[in-house]
Amino acid sequence: MKQSVNFLLSGGGTAGHIYPAVAIANELKKTMPNAKFLFVGAKGKMEMEKVPEKGYEIIGLNIAGIHRKKPWKNLLLPLKILQSFWKAFLIVKKFKPTIAIGTGGYASFPTIYVAKLLGVKTLLQEQNSFPGITNKILAKKADCICVAYDGLEKFFPKNNILKTGNPVRQDLLDTNEKRVQAIEFFNLEPHKKTVLIVGGSLGAKKINELIEKNLDWLLEKNLQLIWQTGKNNFEQLKKYQEKSGVHVFDFIQKMDFAYAASDYIISRTGGIIAELCIVGKPVILIPSPNVAEDHQTKNAEALANSNAALILKETAFDDFKSMLNNLTLDPKLCSELSRNIKQKATPNATKEIAQEINRLINLK
Description:
Rossmann fold, globular
């Protein structure tokens, strides 16, 4: 009797870790509909809600990161780590994965580490130009690390690196065809230009403050907004829904529609970069300075240096109005930005990662 193919996937904490894992699972499911899929996440994190919404089973580990601002919360961290490793051990022993796939985040560390310890093939997917500590440690023993940027041999074993680009949700590949439907979905006015504001799946306080400060000016320019605030700031900002042309969300489920309806995008520069390249809209990138090695700025500069995006640093928010004016008043600039950012897209990334997974399975 032929043994079933079991895929164990782990990644979470933010959409930048969750959706690449879901995209990979969806691609594998196309060619192996009878395969079994199991996700492992961190209890209380967004993957515990988002992964089941996509039709996959997920088990949560009681694990968290280090609290730098509230150190007393770290007292139970060693116990949580031990519990997580033990539970990961039980999951791997019971599920018997053919391969384990990690896309970063707290839960992926014990899951992928234990899988490798028990002789399971492992593949990592790194979204950023500067990897997180989880993937840096796991990469030492991983069979393959799929990356989106050059220069990652500084952190990963060179012979195991495969540059594929970042996997994206397949529903983003045809957003231009959804524009009319998207405008109706968000109840937008077709004759007005639309700005999409995305501060990452968890939101970005600085970006929210920037938009709030300039909200009346944006509306005076006859713009309308699709504004994802993140859950932490939503309660204090949802009052602006009362203003005509302002559509506020804590999290946007139909991102394909949000991209389709937008004319300009204001965004952070983490894993979302891959989506922005696919969508190809003029974008103002606002990198977070509070990340390891300032990698979001490096992500943004990789586009800006090719005239594929504009960069607005948090220290230069006074330039926001003039930068947005440049977009709204210069169709030629918008066309150049759109054309150049599309050239950076890697629409086949998910398929290439799935092919590498198949190769590793066959090697086994």
